[in-house]
Design a protein that fits this description.
It is built from eight helices and 33 strands. The protein is globular and about 75 Å long. By secondary structure, it is of the alpha/beta class. The chain binds (2S,3S,4S,5R)-3,4,5-trihydroxy-6-oxo-oxane-2-carboxylic acid. The site of (2S,3S,4S,5R)-3,4,5-trihydroxy-6-oxo-oxane-2-carboxylic acid has 9 residues, from loops.
Length: 601
């Protein structure tokens, strides 16, 4: 059983030979799972740690048909079965394994997860097994039978399992492998913790047999009065009726499925979503057999020369970068409350924008941020030097991009899709990223495309932005660590920037590290004073960049990274947070806050 819609598969058959062999316009993900009837499979799962993949391969390294996924039990005292989920360790889902068990702190490899659950069939329903995210490769088995695989650690996937479920007791087994590989996205080299496991929630979702599977409902590009969209109906037929209503706007339109999709457009004058008034409307979609309600905001985003326009008006993006790392407990964020703590800190800082780095964050994070009025930069982990000339790597990146846009295309808060972070110039990279940018536009022509670059050269007028990738994006992100990786902080105020492009630029990263509570002179690294000086002088630098339309310094909170071993200072944490992982604000927090509260309002 594959998580793909058969009609669309036929449209795109690529030459790629991997898991992404069959391509489609959008992934088939169910839209808006929060509004669906579902049973949670969260909680304790039994696990078996399997560094040699003993539960998958035999001693000839051939995949076995009686691996751990069979969940076998001894039938008689003489049986030889060298594993037993029932007596194994347990860990929580959602959650990374690294912070739940000491022996898994640095672990990269396979862990088998198993969960028992009960199911009672209802007539005329379909059931999906839906994973919000598993890092990195998942092979999923239901009642001992393989139902599918997924690659990529930060996007959701699903399998329709109606016919595989049994009345009463069932079990699901997932082989999770977070081994880093050179050809993966991200590749072997990354500055954040490679948290393994079923890191986000798992659900059994029920829908009517013929049901609304996906929809797109947003203002048409450039219009504030034309709400446009489409609805797809699984197991539906051409000619099926679809009704879309927005009661608060007194709108109700009818459409009919044609070639698998019901398209519509609604003339309306919605109050536009913006950070100061993040207005969301209830939108209901109805078919003969199904009904679903979402909360959706309407806004436009565009550029004009070096300006970003929200609803036609220039807006300056006062932001901060955020990793999906949990405050206080560290490890992966696993609850709405943790999302809200991070977002509340960004609010206190005076932000109207957040960069969700370096991969798609959970749907919960995006929806909470939208309610709180943050504009969002969302990105895929095309990070540093991935294999730009490898077709499978491209297919993987494109799949993650498609899944990110599929899931979040109705979120007004998202202004920008970012296709890459700090990639090295070169022909293969330019082709790769230009293709990805075009792909993103094909899937969603209403948002801006960006990428974070660190490739500027030294020109006469100072730093010069002329990376050819600038052509492919709408907004240029620049990561630059003046006062930390280059030059001393005092030098930064006078650094000048020029650009070959008449496009908006966002300083997508600036910053420096400090250990909370470490004090000294502003020339002493790792002190709060040093970090504050980095912020002070970088803000002065940014005041002089005419084409700057926003910034998202690095980073809201200290986060774990295995590239950061320095004893007594880093201890496996990247210390560039404005707040420590225990929630303590450093001096630089207040420097940036002052800037945000006093300027560019
Ligand atoms: C960067 C990367 C980010 C790192 C950061 C750092 O340029 O984009 O992922 O964590 O620098 O701290 O070096």
């Amino acid at each position: 059983m594959k998580p793909i819609k058969s009609v669309l598969i036929l449209l795109f058959i690529s030459s790629f030979t991997t898991l992404f062999a069959q391509e489609r316009e959008f992934s088939d993900l169910l839209q808006n799972i929060d509004a669906r009837e579902k049973v949670s499979l969260n909680g304790l799962w039994d696990i078996i740690i399997d560094p040699l993949e003993n539960g998958y391969y035999n001693h000839r390294l051939q995949p076995m048909d009686n691996g751990y996924f069979k969940n076998a039990k001894m039938q008689s005292p003489s049986d030889l079965i060298e594993y037993n989920f029932d007596t194994s360790d347990q860990i929580m889902v959602p959650g990374d394994w690294n912070t739940q068990m000491e022996k898994l702190y640095y672990y990269e490899g396979t862990v088998w997860y198993k969960k028992d659950f009960n199911y009672t069939a209802k007539t005329n329903e379909l059931v999906y097994l839906y994973f919000e995210a598993v890092n990195y490769e998942a092979i999923v088995y239901l009642n001992g039978e393989r139902i599918g695989t997924h690659t990529g650690g930060y996007t959701p996937f699903q399998f329709e399992v109606t016919d595989k479920l049994k009345e009463g007791d069932n079990f699901v087994v997932v082989k999770v492998d977070n081994k880093r590989k050179r050809e993966n996205v991200p590749t072997v080299n990354q500055d954040w913790w490679n948290y393994g496991g079923i890191t986000r929630s798992v659900h059994l979702i029920s829908t009517p047999k013929t049901h609304i599977s996906d929809y797109s409902i947003q203002l048409a590009k450039g219009s504030t009065t034309n709400i446009q969209g489409w609805v797809t109906v699984e197991n539906g037929s051409d000619g099926d009726n679809v009704e879309i209503s927005i009661p608060e706007l007194r709108k109700n339109v009818k459409s009919v499925v044609k070639n698998g999709k019901a398209s519509f457009s609604i003339k309306a004058k919605p109050t536009l979503w913006e950070p100061k008034n993040p207005k969301l409307y209830e939108v209901t979609i109805k078919t003969g057999t199904d009904e679903i309600t979402d909360t959706i905001g309407f806004r436009t985003v565009s550029t004009q020369g070096s300006k970003i326009l929200l609803n036609g008006k220039e807006i300056f993006l006062k932001g901060i970068s955020i990793h999906e790392e949990a405050p206080f407990k560290t490890g992966r964020v696993t609850s709405k409350e943790e999302c809200r703590i991070l977002l509340q800190w960004a609010k206190e800082l005076g932000c109207n924008y957040i960069r969700l780095a370096h991969y798609p964050h959970s749907e919960t994070m995006v929806r909470e941020a939208e309610k709180m009025g943050f504009m969002i930069w969302s990105e895929i982990p095309v990070y540093w030097t991935i294999l730009f000339d490898n077709k499978d790597t491209y297919a993987n990146a494109k799949n993650q991009l498609t899944e990110m846009i599929s899931r979040d295309k109705n979120r007004a808060a998202i202004l920008m899709w970012s296709v890459a972070n700090e990639t090295p110039e070169g022909e293969a990279r330019l082709d790769f990223l230009t293709n990805l940018a075009n792909e993103a536009r094909k899937l969603d022509n209403t948002r801006l495309i960006t990428a974070a670059l660190d490739t500027q050269s030294e020109g006469e007028g100072g730093k010069m932005i002329e990376d050819p990738l600038g052509k492919a994006v709408d907004v240029i992100g620049i990561n630059h660590y003046c006062g930390w990786y280059v030059d001393k902080p005092q030098k930064c105020s006078s650094v000048k920037w020029a650009s070959a492009y008449d496009k908006p630029m966002i300083m997508s990263e600036v910053g420096g590290g400090a250990l909370y509570g470490l004090h000294g002179s502003k020339n002493e690294r790792w002190t709060e004073e040093y970090q504050a000086e980095v912020y002070r002088t970088n803000i002065e630098m940014m005041r002089n960049i005419e084409f700057l339309s926003g910034l998202s310094p690095w980073i809201l909170m200290d986060f774990r990274s295995s590239r950061r071993p320095l004893k007594r200072i880093q201890e496996d944490f990247n210390r560039k947070g404005l707040i420590s992982e225990q929630g303590m604000k450093k001096q630089a927090f207040y420097i940036l806050r002052d800037y945000y509260l006093k300027e560019n309002n």
